[in-house]
Write a structure and sequence with these properties.
Elements: H1 2-14, H2 25-62, H3 66-95, H4 118-128, H5 134-139, H6 143-159, H7 162-203, H8 206-216, H9 218-242, H10 248-254, H11 256-265, H12 268-282, H13 287-300, H14 303-319, H15 326-342, H16 349-360, H17 365-376, H18 379-405
Bound molecules: aspartic acid.
Aspartic acid (ASP) binds near residues 267, 345, 347, 349 and 386.
């Protein structure tokens, strides 16, 4: 947290004095710290997700609780994502930021994302579950494909019984080694986070530019942040308290490193190792639950992204004078949920999958493109908040699964 604040202050004050491509030594050094931290996290993600999901699957089978665990996990993902979308829609309709901005003129914006109908986008997500080459999927950070492969691999390994036991042990050792690696990276986190936040804030032009960008779209930014705030501070803690029977403040303390890392990297995927380390070391969750629920949640459970997409689409439509009817709003709610599931857990992914929500709500593509270009200037800020909410939601999901999804006690993965 202190790294992020210090980085914001350094970037905010000194950013306006840095010339593009000619940063002073100290700033280049900070940028290096940020990059090394980010790369270490990314370097860990692929082997970590594969070994975690295989172990999650093999240990789950041993305790005979696959169906129940899957049921609780997916019910939680769907319910919280839909709650987030409904909340976003209510907030944007009440505040109505769209009616207060001038329609931007000029050409059709700088973003030309693929125009997909909702079912085409759904099919695209299903296709990404089954990559033709897992090495290519790993190289391109397509976590969803790796998860499918690891789940199938784990399910078959489990059925091999004693013969598979040796391999399970080896994978468990590899996972333990990676976990120790993660602890080293977490130790470096304050410096890495300082570097990431300082250079990002500085490159955006420092405090004055950030404030003027935010001011230009102030009501829109406030609407998104208010929705995310209510979801993170009221809805999710209520579930944590009421369903998982955990103290939300203590839970936040346990996962503070994960939430700050999500904020600094704007990537739920890069945060997976930190979230898992917090779950095991600080919160004391069962290893097999954490190994299964956290990578899966980071990839498909994105409450912040779903809320954000619903708000942005309704805001943009209203800015361009399009009043969406009740049917279109229901369509926005459903497709924003799908779009969040399909969004990759990397920076700005939500902005790309938003195109499908526009298409489903019958907003013309040139308006969608102009609108996306309009909100692009502040997406790097809002992305950080929604990623932090995405990861916070994953940790609450783990607590719910730990309480409702386990049959008997859980505590170890594979021995
Ligand atoms: N950056 C987000 C994440 O990694 C996805 C998004 O752009 O909304 O969770």
């Amino acid at each position: 947290m202190s790294g992020a604040l210090l980085g914001f202050v350094i970037g905010g004050f000194f950013g306006p004095h840095w010339k593009a491509n000619d940063w002073p030594f100290f700033i280049q050094f900070l940028a290096l710290l940020g990059e090394v931290f980010m790369n270490l996290l990314r370097m860990l993600v692929v082997p970590f997700v594969i070994t975690s999901m295989i172990l999650g699957m093999t240990s789950m089978g041993r305790q005979g609780r696959v169906g129940r665990l899957l049921g609780v996990t997916f019910t939680y993902y769907m319910v919280t994502t839909i709650l987030a979308v409904i909340l976003g829609i209510v907030v944007v309709l009440v505040v109505d930021p769209g009616g207060r901005y001038a329609v931007p003129g000029g050409t059709a914006g700088v973003v030309h994302a693929e125009q997909l109908l909702w079912y085409e986008a759904l099919f695209k997500t299903v296709r990404s579950l089954f990559p033709d080459n897992i090495f290519q999927a790993a190289a391109q950070g397509q976590i969803l494909g790796l998860i499918t492969f690891s789940l199938i691999f784990g399910a078959i390994l489990r059925r091999l019984g004693e013969r598979g036991e040796m391999l399970v042990r080896v994978i468990d050792v590899v996972n333990d080694v990676l976990m120790t690696f993660v602890h080293g990276v977490i130790w470096l986190a304050p410096l890495g986070i300082l570097g990431l936040v300082a250079t990002k804030t500085g490159a955006a032009g420092g405090f004055s530019s950030v404030i003027s960008d935010l001011r230009a779209l102030s009501l829109y930014a406030i609407t998104v942040l208010a929705g995310l705030g209510v979801h993170a501070v009221i809805v999710l803690p209520a579930i944590l308290w009421g369903v998982a029977r955990r103290n939300p403040i203590q839970h936040l303390r346990h996962f503070s490193e994960a939430v700050v890392t999500a904020f600094s990297t704007a990537s739920s995927a890069a945060t997976i190792p930190v979230t898992t380390a917090n779950a095991l070391d600080k919160a004391g969750f069962g290893k097999s639950n954490a190994q299964f629920v956290l990578p899966l949640g980071a990839t498909i459970n994105m409450d912040g992204t779903a809320l954000y997409e619903a708000v942005a689409v309704i805001f943009i439509a209203s800015t361009f004078g399009i009043k969406l009817g009740i049917t279109q709003i229901v369509v926005v709610a459903l497709t924003a949920t799908l779009a969040a599931i399909g969004a990759a857990a990397i920076p700005h992914a939500g902005l790309v999958t938003m195109v499908m929500v526009f298409a489903a709500a019958d907003v013309p593509p040139d308006i969608a493109n102009k609108g996306i270009a309009m909100i692009l200037t502040i997406d790097w800020i809002l992305d950080r908040f929604r990623t932090a909410v995405n990861v916070w939601g994953d940790t609450v999901g783990l607590a719910v699964v730990e309480r409702l999804g386990s049959v008997g006690s859980d505590g170890e993965s594979s021995d």
